[in-house]
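Lab notebook, bench 4. The sequencing result for the construct came back, and we need a structural model before the next group meeting so we can plan mutations. Quick request posted to the team channel:

Model the 3D structure of this chain.
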Amino acid sequence: MMLAACGSDSPGGPAGTSGRPTTGATSSGAAATSPASQTPVTVRPLGAKNAADLLVRGRGTLTASLRTAIDRVRGVGTTLTFAAGTTTVNGTKVTVAAVDPSTFRSYAPTGTAESDALWQSVARGELAVMHTRARTLALSLGAQADLGGTSRRVGAFATTLPGIDVVVSDAVGRQLGLRGTTGLVASVGRADPGEVGQRVTRLVGKRADVDLLTAPAAVPRSFLTGNAAAQAFGTFSYRYSANGTISPDPQWVRANIRTETVPLLGKVTCHRLMLPQLRGALEEVVRSGIAAKIHPDEYAGCYVPRFIESNPNQPISLHTWGIALDMNVPGNQRGTRGEMDRRVVAIFKKWGFSWGGDWSYTDPMHFELAALLKDPPS
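Done. Here's the predicted structure in token form:
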């Protein structure tokens, strides 16, 4: 059986770089709500906010004893549990979280947590849909949508937690058959999220997946963006073929694309600016004693000039710039939680990479350069 490498990237190319122009609105962390005719329901005002640092997703029910053990892990501060699972919206599979709006809102991002209208909408039984997912589902605010066979009003578009497409109330969740605690979000206060995440991962073992939602404390906050990134990565013209492949300007390729040997993966061909951070991340994986978690024979490349999904109607893939790579392909297919070790993920994030496993439509084999670090981690 042939397994293809991922056909996805975060939208567009590096900030400020040239390539194939794209259109469409960008996603927002703020909430957009649609006025409803119903009398507002009672949702408690937002009190103290809690940082959503870790997300624990049970492969089954998170038992009371396991939840207590997580609460006792050194560095774990406040926690909140909810029911999570999958259902369909207009026939398309989505991930859904059933929550108590009064308590869950405190873990939501700024702009979402503060919106009384949004959480009242959820409490009324309406849907709060992630911005990017709403676009792919072609949903409109205030319209009706089929949620698992029942018509529900789309009350809000909002960003809540990574990997959650739709948020509904506990009552709606029970109607969908979501029972038991399968999700837990935790705040770690002043502790290092990376270190606490590793402790929780060791505790839960194969019973749950632990996602790091906040960058480890060791991540430098100084990085290049905007015009500086554009100047660093370089701009290029290109030709493309009907099969979705791209031929960038040879002069740009000669100036920016390099083939070098790195730990674990061996020879790789990537953008010259990504190679130091890739090498640093892989060296730290080796030092951490988890080299076996990366499988060199399942590496699917870095510099692969093409459109996303090899479709000329899509934006250019970040693989065209040589700033994305796919690893451990067979066990990390699109739309799955994947088998990528979360300690590897945490190390790559520390070195300036983002991870496709955090996306709404997951791509856990995929890492892409998100920041050019001026000061590499020590």
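The longest strand covers residues 79-89.
Will bring this to the meeting.
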